[in-house]
Amino acid sequence: MIHSLFLINCSGDIFLEKHWKSVVSQSVCDYFFEAQEKAVDVENVPPVISTPHHYLISIYRDKIFFVSVIQTEVPPLFVIEFLHRVADTFQDYFGECSETAIKDNVVIVYELLEEMLDNGFPLATESNILKELIKPPTILRSVVNSITGSSNVGDTLPTGQLSNIPWRRAGVKYTNNEAYFDVIEEIDAIIDKSGSTVFAEIQGVIDSCIKLSGMPDLSLSFMNPRLLDDVSFHPCIRFKRWESERVLSFIPPDGNFRLISYRVSSQNLVAIPVYVKHLISFKENSSSGRFDVTIGPKQNMGKTVEGVVMTVHMPKAVLNMNLTATQGSYTFDPVTKVLTWDVGKITPQKLPNLKGIVNLQSGAPKPEENPSLNIQFKIQQLAISGLKVNRLDMYGEKYKPFKGVKYITKAGKFQVRT
Amino acid sequence: MAASPAYGEEKGGSSSLGEPEYGHDPASGGIFASDYKRHDDLKEMLDSNKDSLKLEAMKRIVAMIARGKNASDLFPAVVKNVACKNIEVKKLVYVYLVRYAEEQQDLALLSISTFQRGLKDPNQLIRASALRVLSSIRVPIIVPIMMLAIKEAASDMSPYVRKTAAHAIPKLYSLDSDQKDQLIEVIEKLLADKTTLVAGSVVMAFEEVCPERIDLIHKNYRKLCNLLIDVEEWGQVVIINMLTRYARTQFLSPNQNESLLEESAEKAFYGSEEEDTKDAKAEAASLAKRKPYVMDPDHRLLLRNTKPLLQSRNAAVVMAVAQLYFHLAPKAEVGVIAKALVRLLRSHSEVQYVVLQNVATMSIKRRGMFEPYLKSFYIRSTDPTQIKILKLEVLTNLANETNISTILREFQTYIRSMDKDFVAATIQAIGRCATNIGKVRDTCLNGLVQLLSNRDELVVAESVVVIKKLLQMQPAQHSEIIKHMAKLTDNIQVPMARASILWLIGEYCEHVPKIAPDVLRKMAKSFTNEEDIVKLQVINLAAKLYLTNSKQSKLLTQYVLNLAKYDQNYDIRDRARFIRQLIVPTEKSGALNKYAKKLFLAQKPAPILESSFKDRDHFQLGSLSHLLNAKAVGYQELPDWPDEAPDPSVRNVEVPEWTKCTSREKRKEKVEKPFYSDSEGESGPTESADSGESHHEPESDSEESGSSSSSGTSSSSSEEEDEEEEEEGSGEQSEEKEGEEEEEKRKKRKEKGGLRKAGSPQPLSPMGWAWWPMLSCGPWQLLSPAFGAVRTYELLHRMAGEGLSVEYCFSRRPFPGDPHMVAVQIQISNNTDAEVKSLRVSEPKLLAGMRIQEFPEIESLAPGDTASVVMGIDFCDSTQAANFQLCTHTRHFYVSIQPPVGELMAPVFMSENEFRKEQGKLTGMSEITEKLTLPEKCRSDHAIVQQVTSAANVGRVPCGADNEYRFAAKTVTSGSLVLITLEWREGAAAQLTVNSEKMVIGTMLVKDIIQALAQ
């Protein structure tokens, strides 16, 4: 299915290639470069490109293009999803999925790619299995390896691949047995000019960090599972139990993983924790404009809104901005025209405000549209949907684990139109 | 070592060739001499005894390969290390070998014996990895060895080795396609494998080697369906795609017959005119020929077992299930996929891109499915342009009369975007909305005209093009706009826009008789500097003006034609010559001359603005071909449904002797256990054991499939599963027959009913007693008290009507003459002291599709008198108001009638069984359930029935169960079924369920009924 893979950086260098069938020449990437040029910015490169003999399916992650070469019909999402899985694996192994990390660990990367695909068809993509096959690099291990000459390749057999529960490796042992769950909710919203909500929705995930010995069988229940409108599961979850009892029952993978992601039905009203007052105007026939934005908290359920950052893509005609912030600091990049205001925590007593003059290119026509404001924020200890974990039970093992649940609400794609 | 002698016999010659080749390799490698020196250090390291040095060298070599540098000259030095003890060195050598074996075939042969030894290793993982590398070496000479190895591995005890064998099949096939027949045998064998580990890989091999051999799937179909949920994600995608194709060849379309049946039923029901009855007869005849549709249990099995996978975290799996449902599920069930697809829109932008393409195609066919998620397709300014344009496409497809105002408001924000490509696409989208929805055409047109004064030329140009298309639909009313556009020729430079304006002026020159010649004058002046496309339109304009207004434009036309005669472009020269001959009368001019006017100024049909995603669904959704809208290499056509279902018994599997002893009770006992964990314990030994597995195997398989079985527990083995399936299957088959008979009976009944109804104006429902005679003076009191008071609504108040008061009510009887209309009884009383003359309806303002049958004009109404008339309104199954004017000889009154949702339907007869059957088809999104509490006075059968029937025009369905009430109706316009179930639980609690394809109606109806019951 997947014939070859090329990794290309932003300046157009092919810095890694891997072929699973016969070799495809690098020149096939020229079609990709052509499309990239046409697309102007990186986001608009079409993910699927048809060339006379091949099809190129690519993703863009962390400033790297993963370009795969396909020769025959294959579901495009299959390839895209797999490429993202590859990127996730790199992230998992090296802490970041960057060009330098890949170049520094090129041998491990190659070994990983070799295990992940066989003849272009995915073989082992579960990180638990891969980690048994190829140990992730750590400083300690690389020191030890250089002295003893031992290797990163595990000599034990990846039994997980053979079992019913391929996501969990066998023989896990911890001295401290812990299970942590992070309930993270993101608010996606579009707020219109007048401050009313055009669209709002809550997207949530439960990320888990499970360090439990043996083969624990967990079940996690919620106080209000009916809230969850649409859920997608990690393969470890028993679907039938969820269907019948609304309980998450699973044998967890070892380590960090995403247990579920869910959406809270859009019928429910979504509480919007911040409001934005804005006044942005460009004067006709003069090369300046006004910019005045205030952010304030609302419906925050007694919790502080923190980590507030506002980013604005200003129109091209903007030359510079002369602003004063009552709180936090702002930067304006005159090349990309991006204004970033790092506000920090909002205190209701003194609302943060950013105000000043916008300098426009003289002679340029007045920008037609006011830019939309993208807001990020965080609220600790709160799941905005009201979702609550009821209890976590463990079966199958004797010890008593340490359990913890953390809630956090963030802004997702939160946009205010002006 | 079975393989190596065979190899020796067959390829003896070449292997002896290989030896000397290796011998004088340095000579043949002479050209690489410099490279040799360059890699001398690496060679030394590889030759050393220390593993660490070897490893270091291999790492450097692999890094070279990764960067795409040529390291082929190191081949001999590397291959020597293939048998190295160090596992990492070995793995890296494998990487190298697979990469370069094709280029150095003879040297690669040296390594083969190592792998052959590996194939016999007691450790399953070593066996697997040996097979993996051996099959990856693309050297044609070893094809027989590979074949042998694959065959052997296919019957290995370890499922992991068997999986590897499945992976090796397409590799061998691509190396030598002559092996196809033998490979198919192996595939057949592996398809019968019952482990989840193998299933995905073997189906992948099947798809690559012999996708046309659909017959191989029959026996394994049920097993694959049952294993599906436990197969790894990637395998799931492949299996689901294959099963979609399979189902299309083996089962009947779940929708085709259904729609036919519905149509004919509706016709029979309302059929009052002769033509209708004829049609109904013809259709009934065609239906009788066709077997009534009952879904094959295997078809149902597939739908049931794939549904949970919509919840997969893997976007590819979700998409695969979505396309399966789109292509295979009955209409009413397809809705379930919408939610999952919308969820994918939160994912990476590449995923969004692919999903949106598919949603765009789906939303054309099944608009209702995505309507509830309209807002999820709203565009953010930070979306990449390609995503924005796809979302726009979806929004346009979803636009209908009810949501168009929200969508247009949203579009207004988009038009001001900084992203000009996106703005242009938005303008196109507005154009499409305007053509599709007549109601908003004027609004859109006005909006677009405003855009003509936009500063950005591209925006103006795009608007001009779209306006042109819109004006073509109704040019007469818009001469102002045409004039406005004529002025724009001075400023707009975009050729396409100029050409569009010129065409418009030419086409409608009679609407702008003064301006048109002037425009031609200006254009003649600048003719030589125009683009070709504009020049052609100038000639066109000149010709049309010459024909309509030759006095003013004769000279200008001559001038333009002369200019064109000497143009550089031959198209333009040709056109000029052709037109001159056609329009300018000369002695020699042919017969066509008289018809010139007809030729040029013929009525031209308005263009239809269509989505580019229309008809894309003939490609399997989710496929590469669908995305590219072109057939990709290796694309397997999605076959059409067969007319006759192939024999379903081919999927039956013989039940092995030993499973027969397992009783169902035993299985059920196990079902109670909530976890599969203990079964895992049992299967522990089989997981790790390499030996002694064979006769336990069925049992171990049972564990693996157990967790997948529909009960979600550890009990039944796959064989049992099959057996069970089979039993079920046969059971359902007999049911099927019964079903058929019943269906037949029902149809006969319907036909009879239809004929009878067509013939005589008999009442249609148990509520026949509720009809009142037409035009009687005081119909209100004629109602049976059991029915409750029919609500009357005010159309015109006495004060507003200056003494004329008008009331209306819904008479609930079919409107004579048009079964799609709702009859509205109107009572007009004249409270003035003068006679009111010529009362009539005029100027109805209706949404597209709505129709009004006016009542006959009332010539005069004496003071104090009251008249009652009936008019018919086709509300198109929407609760939108019908606006019209009520005129008297002196005055006009603007009035509007808004129907309560319950009046948009007419009762139908149904048996309980039919009701259940229909209800089964209308689940998922079509089902709306609400809990309610019944107030004191509504807690009797009588009261409930009365309240429900007063809230909606429905018929009661006889019902066996106590405390359960069913009602059925069909919407008047489209004839969609509306099924109402009210379950009265203990005390005041009750649950109301409404099933209807029309979700909006369903939702509103639930509200209305609850309100009625609460009163």
TrEMBL record, chain A:
Q: Which residues form the MHD domain?
A: 176-417
Q: Name one Pfam family in it.
A: Adap_comp_sub
Family listed? Belongs to the adaptor complexes medium subunit family.
Q: Does the keyword Protein transport apply?
A: yes
Q: What is this protein called?
A: Adaptor related protein complex 3 subunit mu 1
Ordered alphabetically, the record's keywords are: Cytoplasmic vesicle, Golgi apparatus, Membrane, Protein transport, Transport
Q: Which GO terms describe its cellular component?
A: clathrin adaptor complex; cytoplasmic vesicle membrane; Golgi apparatus
| Subcellular location field | Cytoplasmic vesicle membrane; Golgi apparatus
Task: Please indicate if the UniProt record lists Membrane as a keyword.
Answer: yes
Instruction: Give the species this sequence originates from.
Output: Pavo cristatus
A GO biological-process term:
vesicle-mediated transport
SUPFAM superfamilies reported for this sequence: Second domain of Mu2 adaptin subunit (ap50) of ap2 adaptor, SNARE-like
Q: How does it sit in the membrane?
A: Peripheral membrane protein
Coiled-coil intervals: none
Automatic annotation (TrEMBL), chain B:
Q: Where is the composition biased (Basic and acidic residues)?
A: 664-675
Subcellular compartments:
Cytoplasmic vesicle, Clathrin-coated vesicle membrane; Golgi apparatus
Q: Where is the composition biased (Low complexity)?
A: 705-717
Q: Which membrane topology describes this protein?
A: Peripheral membrane protein
Q: Which Pfam families match?
A: Adaptin_N, AP3B1_C, AP3B1_C_2
Record's GO cellular component terms: AP-3 adaptor complex; clathrin-coated vesicle membrane; Golgi apparatus
Source organism superkingdom: Eukaryota
Every copy of the AP-3 complex subunit beta C-terminal domain together lies at 747-880
Q: Where is the signal peptide?
A: none
The question of whether Ribonucleoprotein is a record keyword is answered with no
Q: Which stretches are tagged as biased composition: Acidic residues?
A: 718-743
Residue span of region Disordered:
1-31, 664-764
Q: Which keywords accompany this UniProt record?
A: Cytoplasmic vesicle, Golgi apparatus, Membrane, Phosphoprotein, Protein transport, Transport
User: Which GO biological process entries does UniProt record here?
Assistant: intracellular protein transport; vesicle-mediated transport
Quote the InterPro entries the UniProt record gives: AP3_beta, AP3B1/2_C, AP3B_C, AP_beta, ARM-like, ARM-type_fold, Clathrin/coatomer_adapt-like_N
* The family this protein is said to belong to: Belongs to the adaptor complexes large subunit family.
Biological role stated in the UniProt entry: Subunit of non-clathrin- and clathrin-associated adaptor protein complex 3 (AP-3) that plays a role in protein sorting in the late-Golgi/trans-Golgi network (TGN) and/or endosomes. The AP complexes mediate both the recruitment of clathrin to membranes and the recognition of sorting signals within the cytosolic tails of transmembrane cargo molecules. AP-3 appears to be involved in the sorting of a subset of transmembrane proteins targeted to lysosomes and lysosome-related organelles.
The name this protein carries in UniProt is AP-3 complex subunit beta
Give the source species. Answer: Pavo cristatus (Indian peafowl)
Q: What is the lineage of its organism?
A: Eukaryota, Metazoa, Chordata, Craniata, Vertebrata
